[in-house]
Amino acid sequence: MSEATKSDRKLRQATLLVHGGTLRSQFGEMSEGLFLTQGYAYDSMEMAEKRFKGEDPGFMYSRFSNPTVNMFEQRMALLEGAESARATATGMAAVTAAILGQLKAGDHIVAAKALFGSCRFIVEDLAPRYGIQCTLVDGTDLDQWRSAARPNTKTFFLESPTNPQLEIIDIAAVAKIAHAAGATLVVDNVFATPVFQSPLKLGADCVVYSATKHVDGQGRVLGGCILASEAFIQAHIHNFLRQTGPAMSAFNAWVMLKSLETLTLRVTQQMRNAERVADFLAGQSQIKKVLYPFRKDHPQYELARRQMSGGGTVVVMDVKGDKAAAFRMANAFSVIKISNNLGDAKSIVTHPATTTHQRLPQADREGMGITEGMLRLSVGLEDVEDIIEDLQAGLAAI
Length: 398
Ligand SMILES: *Cc1c(COP(=O)(O)O)cnc(C)c1O
Fold this sequence. Notes:
The protein has helices spanning 13-19, 45-53, 67-80, 91-100, 117-129, 142-148, 171-180, 193-196, 230-244, 250-260, 263-282, 301-307, 323-331, 362-367, 384-397; strands at 84-88, 108-112, 133-137, 153-159, 184-188, 206-210, 224-228, 287-291, 314-319, 337-338, 348-350, 374-378. It is built from 15 helices and 12 strands. The structure holds pyridoxal-5'-phosphate.
């Protein structure tokens, strides 16, 4: 039996992140067990028969479920306040299942334009190959969501804050529009993290994560997670994952479980560092614009405050000058590493126009506000003074 659910006592988030979902074996191990096993031995043929009929709740095969993966799923569900969770091999496996698991040929998706590149591929290129049409909207414009809905619209999909413009989409308002249209709402909550935003409480039907980002948070393994009501998981996700097989490995689940113990501590400190970095950059003459959701000059500051409990760990700046100026700045960093990941304990700088968003035609990029001078900073756990010294060196090199 799971330790955290043994009694009816309602435990708080920090406690759940350490103990939630723990399954202890007969050895009483303190640290969560790593069950590297494909299959499970049954006591008898009768037991095997019952398991396959769903009359005995044990494990059958690790493509379906595994004790270590199960612990990770339970802990994520407790953190998110979701009835049910399913882990996947990557964030993209989670997004693909959450979207395609609900749809069939003839259905229609409405999605915000400002999506992670691979998520755009799923809705814009992949889904139409299977007869599922997609309309892309400016996610911040509620009228566009309203007018894009059709009788065959089955799901709305968005990410907030968006990558890399850090636009905030009103999740509660979009959820209402989706439900009025008879559709569900799926939210990619990577940038906000489960610590700073709870889309299910705002009315979303399903939340997806790339656990690769803040959940691991230490740049090691890939993973994803889908969270929703038990009814949503049973109707759309459970069988899709079992039969198509994008299962999270037990090893990765174990790494993620240990990471969850420190998730709140890490992202809270990263957020404090990000706030300092944003305030520092805002005062610099070589920087045209700084974007951070919890700074008063963010165009959607009020909305950010309303639906998030922290501004997150990513700061975006627009360097005066062109691509060369942005490159000179980033090339001068030494503590901040040049990479395209985010949410890591190590600070990371990315030039979206030439890396994560280079696939988009220039006109699309410009329409989304992704300029040649834009740098995205994922702020890490270093001493913030060392990060700021790096930024000073970068500013001097512009
Ligand atoms: C990274 C990321 C993904 C994809 O996750 P992977 O683990 O790389 O597959 C999806 N959405 C957002 C917002 C991301 O940042």
